[in-house]
Amino acid sequence: MNVFKKIRKRLNEKSGESTVNDWITIFFMLLPYALMFSLFVAIPVALAIGLSLTYFNTIQVPEFKGFLNYIMLLTQDEVFLKYVLPNTFQYALIIGPGGYFLSFLLAWMLAQITPRMRTILALALYTPSMVGGVFISVVWRTLFSGDEAGYINALLMQWNWIERPIQFLQSPQYLMNIMIVVGLWSAMGIGFLAMLAGILNTNEELYEAAYIDGIKNKLQEVIYITIPSMRSQMLFGAVMAIVGAFNSGWIGVALSGTNPTPQYAGQLIINHIEDYGFIRYEMGYAAAVSVALLLIIWGFSKVAYRLFGERD
Amino acid sequence: MAFQGTKINPKRFDKSQLKFYLVLVPMALFMVLPVVYIINQAFKPLDELFMFPPRFFVIKPTFKNFTDLLRTSSTTGVPMSRYLFNSIVITTITVFANMLITAASAYVLSKKKFKLKAKLFALNQIALMFVPIAVAIPRYLIIKNVGLTDTFWVHIIPMLAMPVGLFLVKQFMDDIPDALIEAARLDGANDLQILWKIVIPLIRPALATVAILTFQAVWNATESSSLYVSDETLKTFAFYLNTLTTTNNTIAGAGMAAAAGLIMFLPNLIIFMVMQSKVMNTMTHSGIK
Q: Are A271 and A253 in contact (CB under 8 A)?
């Protein structure tokens, strides 16, 4: 016992600020999160990178192929280049920056009205984001259902705009637009809440000072005062908007009910990964597509950090 | 008063605010209408569900869809209540476990001093960009190899690392003065006691936010049931709802799906309404520097 205490004492002296006890606490308090984080976030990303360099069909041992999957992806995969990539960019650019701009605009307007009404309206705007994917598909599938019972079809027929019901969710020319509507519908997520909190938290004296200094209108107020003083929330909101845009990629499949979507009209990278990974079992190739997706998300976030990050 | 602009966070209504309502109210209606529609669908009797032209609002509300839902079971004979029970248990365990795990690790990252601290938090911040479905395949391989497939835990354990949650709680905790913790330490409290008795009561808003985010993620999740579980008695209510709408396109199915959708939706709404002021409080600390 005594020896043990002595060793501990010496170790304590050596490590300066933190004691051995401290290290034990730090280790055990971090352990559960660190373990889960490694298993389900970090290692999957590393594995995806590793697998992307192989041919792997889940039965045989992965076979090393170098960059073959990436070369195939960028030169041979006609579906990817012709539909998936343009679709993803179209969808992500509208839902990401578009949804983000809309979130900011609505949050800013909410900040200009009285608290009680603000709470009610903010709750209404956030409602779509609290329901999950299943609910979203139930709602919109019934609304856009292809027969007369579909509410949108029935309305259009009642107004004599169309004669026969339209197969909205099965026709390539409508699917993407519907996906964008649904995507924007559920785009006011926690980034929106963060920006609302950020705007409400800006310093009122700054505004007064700015008006004395000659700011003339609301637009100048937003550009020179509001946005700079809530930069960090703007960045958080931007990251959340990007992640949200790529995370909601399943809706095309959820709405149309098939993967691939009709004539690949609503095919996004996420669906392409699923198509190759879980339908064709070409896990190596699917992993390469995953890595490409992670790189795209990372690229988008880089832009957000460049815009709103702290400049040093 | 030289100050001419309308104020942020006004206390009183003013005519100049009307222009904002002009945009906000239609937007809010657009957001809520689909939900109101499903609520009405859930209470419609059969003849109203398939009335032409369809009516938005229910005329003769009935609970028939709900009783039908309770009475039916999936094609494999598992009753609806089983799925609901699974979802409730899974969600409760995950929410509480997540609050504890997040609080403990945020405490370490915010209040303890050690070398790797800044690096670990930076790593977590990068992980904010993490999109789980992007790496669905490696996750699938890991879950299979860890032996989680076809267990109850497969719904819970992969949900326990939530980078956004840790990020928000840590930022919130940074505002607790170190002096408070030092004082407690001088009084002889160890880290576990400090965390439990001092820190956790102070970060309740942030933990409420973690609870809500976890709830939303777990309660609404279908992937774990469809990818990792083949035993029907271990699947969740969200998954059951999904099968109702994708496979069961019969006439009775539409009303039942709406009823099930409403059961899915209500807990989300209630929890958020109860905790919304706490969430807003947390969000003021959400900045990324």
A: yes
At the topology level, CATH places domain B81-235 in MetI-like fold (1.10.3720)
Kindly state the DSSP code that residue B6 receives in the 8-state scheme. Answer: P
Cα separation, A284 vs A115, in Å, equals 53
**Distance of alpha carbon B3 from alpha carbon A54, whole angstroms:** 65
**Residue A241 domain-assigned (yes or no):** yes
Q: Give which of B15, B13, B1, B46 is closest to B258, Cα–Cα.
A: B46
- Contact list in B for residue A88 (CB cut-off 8 A) is none
Mean pLDDT confidence for B111-129: 91
Q: Which of A13-22, A43-52, A57-66, A221-230 has the lowest mean pLDDT?
A: A13-22
Contact between B161 and A112 using a beta-carbon 8 Å cutoff: no
What span, in angstroms and rounded, lies between the C-alpha atoms of A28 and A17? 19
Long-range contacts of A271-275 (CB under 8 A, 24+ apart): A271/A84, A272/A79, A272/A80, A272/A84, A273/B133, A273/B134, A273/B136, A273/B137, A274/B136
In which residue are the tokens 């936010």 written?
B209
Tell me which residue range forms the domain holding A253. Answer: 77-308
Residues in chain A: 312
Partner B contacted by A228 (CB < 8 A): no
In the numeric block, which tokens belong to residue A277?
């990974």
DSSP, collapsed to helix, strand or coil, labels residue B247 as coil
- The total number of structural domains that make up chain A: 1
Q: Does A128 touch chain B (CB under 8 A)?
A: yes
In a domain, A124, yes or no: yes
Residues B222-274 pLDDT 10s: 888 988 999 989 999 999 888 877 655 555 677 888 888 899 999 999 999 99
B19 to chain A: closest CA residue: A109
A272 lies in some domain = yes
- Does B289 score more than 80 pLDDT? no
